[in-house]
């Protein structure tokens, strides 16, 4: 059973940073006083330090990831945290079928993390492995804008901590020296001509020693010693929540942050029998990549992109 109550109790605290009595907390989150005491225990087990004074309860320390992400989060997602999961996308899929509302599933470690086209995603402890379950009213052909929006949100969160990331089409966030810092995996279900749910899986190599990652990967750890996963995850979730409300702005924001446009690229896609080489000239309003080749212009909706040296 998915747990929305710890999230509700944390929201009740977020509204007032002063000590709050058990009675007021119970009233705010719509539960009983016994429920408040039980949830206070749950929060303490999850790394919160909660002080009880004559005036009530006060949160004095917040875990640096996990349910700490819910505390002070200015986005409407219920956060669910697991130390270890097969894949946060798989868990979000279960929630899509069994729970209502919008969720952010987080894990510290994944044992079966997935990339696109069934590729494996290396997910040791210390990463931000996060799947956001959205229920957008969106036509399926605009779904890939959610991927671009997530790439923009991740890039901005990483830049805020001083790491100069850029986006490689369509969904890779690259570190300053070219290694892959983050990837995004979008999964959707459609019904009646519109998206019923969308799961945006975000993998960001945060507090991970780069030697534990594939050779082409990098980690925030390579650029900064102090990596605050709570702040980063909140900023990604808040950025994504803002952008999903104004998807028409996303292509321009993505363009401002990409290193792909203007580059010679090689594109491989399931829909093409051989790789395509050309110059990336733009993305269109759906996020498709426009390539100039010797045989004219091509429009690519999905695939893998490699940046090449100038001819
Ligand atoms: C992606 O696929 O970039 C999407 C990755 C999405 C991962 C998140 S984590 C939370 C959520 N739960 C999941 O199970 N998945 C999502 P793609 O573009 O296909 O890139 C996959 C390729 O990236 C692999 O074939 C490796 O070459 C490389 N790779 C694997 N692990 C990596 C890592 N941790 N960092 C950078 N590159 C990695």
How would you characterize this protein structure?
There is one protein chain. With 311 residues, the chain is an alpha+beta fold. Helices cover 27% and strands 29% of the residues. The protein is built from seven helices and 14 strands. A hairpin with a 7-residue loop joins strand 10 and strand 11. Helix 1 packs across helix 2. The protein is elongated and about 75 Å long. The protein binds biotinyl-5-AMP. Biotinyl-5-AMP binds next to helix 4, strand 5, strand 8 and strand 9.
Distance between the termini: 56 Å
- Each distinct ligand: biotinyl-5-AMP
Across the major sheet, the strand order is 3-4-5-9-8-7-6
Helicity range of the residues? Answer: 25-40%
User: Secondary-structure element order, as H and E?
Assistant: HHHEEEHEEHEEEEHHEEEEE
Low-pLDDT segments? none
What is the compact description of this entry?
This protein is 27% helix and 29% strand. It has 311 residues and is α+β, with helices and mostly antiparallel strands. It is elongated.
Show the helix and strand layout:
Layout: H1 5-15, H2 22-29, H3 33-45, E1 49-53, E2 56-61, E3 78-85, H4 88-98, E4 103-110, E5 128-134, H5 144-160, E6 166-168, E7 172-174, E8 180-191, E9 194-204, H6 229-244, H7 250-257, E10 264-268, E11 276-283, E12 289-293, E13 296-300, E14 304-308
Parallel strand pairs: 3-4
Antiparallel strand pairs: 1-2, 4-5, 5-9, 6-7, 7-8, 8-9, 10-11, 10-14, 11-12, 12-13
Helix pairs in contact: 1-2, 2-3, 5-6, 5-7
The protein binds biotinyl-5-AMP (BT5).
């Amino acid at each position: 059973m998915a747990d929305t109550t710890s999230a509700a109790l944390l929201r009740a605290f977020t509204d007032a940073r002063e000590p709050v009595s058990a009675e007021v907390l119970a009233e705010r989150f719509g539960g009983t006083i016994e429920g408040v005491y039980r949830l206070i225990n749950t929060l303490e087990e999850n790394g919160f330090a909660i002080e009880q004074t004559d005036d009530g309860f006060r949160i004095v320390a917040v875990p640096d990831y996990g349910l700490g992400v819910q505390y002070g989060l200015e986005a409407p997602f219920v956060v669910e945290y697991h130390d270890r999961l097969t894949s946060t996308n798989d868990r979000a899929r279960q929630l899509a079928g069994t729970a209502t509302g919008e969720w952010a599933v987080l894990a510290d470690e994944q044992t079966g993390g997935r990339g696109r086209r069934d590729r494996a995603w290396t997910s040791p402890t210390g990463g931000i492995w996060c799947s956001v379950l959205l229920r957008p009213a969106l036509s399926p052909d605009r779904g890939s804008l959610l991927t671009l929006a997530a790439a923009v949100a991740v890039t901005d969160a990483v830049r805020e901590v001083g790491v100069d990331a850029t986006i490689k089409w369509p969904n890779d966030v690259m570190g300053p020296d070219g290694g892959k810092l983050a990837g995004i995996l979008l999964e959707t279900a459609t019904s009646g001509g519109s998206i019923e749910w969308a799961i945006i899986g975000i993998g960001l190599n945060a507090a991970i020693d780069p030697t534990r990652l594939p050779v082409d990967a990098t980690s925030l750890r390579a650029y900064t010693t102090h990596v605050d996963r709570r702040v980063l995850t909140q900023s990604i979730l808040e950025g994504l929540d803002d952008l999903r409300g104004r998807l028409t702005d996303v292509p321009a924001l993505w363009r401002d942050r990409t290193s792909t446009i203007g580059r010679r690229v090689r594109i491989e896609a399931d829909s093409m029998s051989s790789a395509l080489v050309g110059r990336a000239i733009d993305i269109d309003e759906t996020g498709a990549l426009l390539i100039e080749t010797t045989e004219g212009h091509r429009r690519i909706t999905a695939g893998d992109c490699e940046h090449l040296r100038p001819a």
